[in-house]
Specification:
572 residues, alpha+beta, 6-stranded mixed β-barrel, 17 strands, 38% helix, elongated
Length: 572
């Protein structure tokens, strides 16, 4: 989850993990400095503690050992102070980009009834170490049995139509699932290139062998055995392939550095790309395999003069056996090249299609910047005032057309989640059936104009929406309006949240009752689907940011100049 951390230099927005006291024992991880979170840190009355990941400690804090014992403020769903107690050993970041790991008390939401007794807020991941001799399938069977009992004992929390499932997978598979397919495709492409290279060199060696027929015949006539000739050819092939592998290994590091610098424009983690030491073993293994293949490609002469080789002939002849082998390698080379070119063509076609995809958003002229909610010691109204003042100052910068607030950056912040249950005028709730679910977005006036999203009917929010004590208002997506109010104008009709999870949201009872009260629809906007390249219908409800919870903040700056030229003045 996202945290706003204050106390280590400039305030920063970071990604943090919230874990129980046995987490590090289950994972088998150790500290390089200080200590890790333990069972003694699990009590609801325990002090907040934080463990820094090794990468965050080295890159951001430059391995400063004096950070141990310092107190920081963490803002998220609530605010807590926490003491830095240790630095984790280098390990795979999970979830990815995690910078700190905190105990549960740093997130008041995790101590609420939602997490302690509630069965309707499904957001927790459990980690377990398999017992000796137990397979993953056995663990899954045991989990399914326990889960079936849970659903039987608590039918109100597990609607049949929702088809809730419980699953388990190895941590290795969980970590690599996002990259596995891409890496396998790259590995297959590398194998095809290797086959093409071997076939090419094999044909060259066959052609060269034809010119060496006289030399090989002389060696046979002088008593050289076929084994001796194969060893000579193998030594030559090893020298050739070894030199090629050495050049490949030596050029790998500078090539990866060039690739990392290019890819760093899209992901800062690309700078972590390095050449693993296993590449040496892979290069050596491939060199040996290629050398063996090439050593056994040529046809060797025998002591029988009828074999077609002549000591006295100075001419070059391609025999039927050599020609047949050349054809085999040529066919294999052409086939592998065809597959590689077909795959490359499909990749290029896909990239062109992605480039032309219509997202419904103006992605070329909008700068999205994270501005964490500085809510520590402030009221919600003060936080909203902070964002309004920030937008007012940014709007007067040269080149800025419009600035707006939103709690989610479409396409960047992980795509749509499960959504919240809602209902509307005329909708009848069926017993045992969940209400439809919609995404909930908190925005400011001008959000749709900044992103180039049209309002189909009604109007946008204004500065008065959300401030008065009259009925709250919302804007809904076009698909939601059509499904909830078919053949009717959705403007001035009402929708309201019915999801039981909302009862656990932070805030007073008055704020929660207002949140779940009927909201009048004042506008209908085009769908924003940030989960599919080919847009699909989406159900979304937009609330004015005077009413919505401030879990985080993003400012969207529409400009007529290069958006990146505004990074420095906006940050200032």
């Amino acid at each position: 989850m996202g945290f706003t951390m204050i106390g280590l230099g400039e305030p920063r927005s970071i990604q943090g993990g919230v874990v129980g006291g046995t987490y590090f024992d289950v994972m088998g991880l150790h500290p390089v400095l200080g200590r890790l979170i333990g069972p003694q840190d699990d009590s609801p009355k325990a002090d907040g503690v934080v463990v820094l990941t090794y990468r965050f400690w080295t890159t951001t804090l430059h391995k400063d050992p004096s950070v141990i014992g310092k107190t920081v403020r963490l803002g998220s769903i609530g605010d807590r102070s926490a003491t830095i107690i240790g630095v984790l050993e280098p390990s795979v970041p999970y979830p990815q980009d995690t910078e700190i790991i905190a105990n549960v008390v740093t997130s008041p939401h995790h101590l609420s009834a939602t997490m302690v007794t509630g069965r309707i807020h499904r957001m927790t991941e459990l980690f377990g170490r398999l017992a000796p001799g137990v397979t993953l399938d056995q663990a899954r069977a045991e989990l399914r049995s326990l889960y079936a009992t849970m659903k039987k004992d608590h039918p109100e929390a597990y609607a049949k139509e929702a088809d809730f499932q419980i699953g388990a997978k190895m941590l290795r598979d969980e970590i690599t699932s996002g990259a596995r397919t891409v890496l396998l495709v790259l590995l297959a492409a590398s194998a095809l290139v290797f086959i093409i290279a071997c076939c090419n060199v094999a044909n060259l060696i066959l052609a060269r062998t034809v010119r060496r027929e006289g030399e090989l015949a002389v060696r046979v006539a002088l008593g050289a055995s076929r084994g001796a000739l194969r060893r000579m050819l193998l030594a030559e092939s090893l020298l050739l392939c070894g030199a090629g592998a050495a050049v490949g290994v030596m050029s790998a590091q500078p090539m990866v550095a060039i690739l990392a610098r290019y890819a760093s424009r899209f992901s800062v983690r690309a700078l972590d790309l390095t050449v693993d030491s296993s590449l040496l073993w892979v290069g050596a293994a491939l060199a040996i395999v290629a050398a063996v293949i090439l050593a056994f490609v040529p046809r060797l002469p025998s002591g029988d003069t009828s074999s077609g080789l002549s000591l006295s002939s100075g001419s070059v002849r391609i025999t039927a056996s050599t020609s047949r082998r050349q054809r085999i390698f040529a066919v294999a080379q052409i086939a592998a090249s065809f597959v590689l070119l077909a795959g490359a063509s499909m990749l290029i076609a896909t990239l062109i299609a992605l480039q032309r995809a219509q997202t419904g958003l103006d992605t070329q002229h909008v700068l999205a910047i994270n501005v964490p909610a500085m809510s520590y010691g402030k009221t919600p109204k003060q936080v909203v005032h902070f964002y309004k003042e920030a937008m007012r100052r940014i709007d007067v910068l040269p080149g800025v057309n419009k600035t707006a607030f939103g709690n989610v950056v479409p396409w960047r912040d992980g795509g749509p989640g499960p959504g919240l249950q809602f209902s509307g005028d005329g909708h009848v709730h069926a017993p045992g059936v969940e209400d439809p679910r919609a995404q909930w977005r908190v925005i400011s006036p001008g959000f749709f104009a900044a992103l180039g999203v049209p309002i189909m009917s009604g109007r946008d929010f204004n500065d008065l929406d959300g401030q008065s004590k009259e009925e709250p208002v919302v804007i809904v997506s076009e698909t939601l309006a059509q499904r909830m109010f078919p053949n009717h104008d959705a403007v001035n009709r009402h929708v309201y949240w019915t999801d039981p999870v909302l009862q656990f949201f932070p805030g007073t009872d008055l704020e929660k009752s207002r949140l779940m009260a009927p909201h009048r629809i004042i506008g209908v906007t085009a769908d924003i689907d940030d989960g599919n390249v080919v847009p699909e219908p989406t159900l979304t409800v937009y609330s004015p940011f005077e009413e919505g919870p401030m879990f985080g903040g993003r400012l969207f700056i529409h400009t007529g100049v290069n958006p990146y030229s505004l990074v420095a003045p906006v940050t200032q």
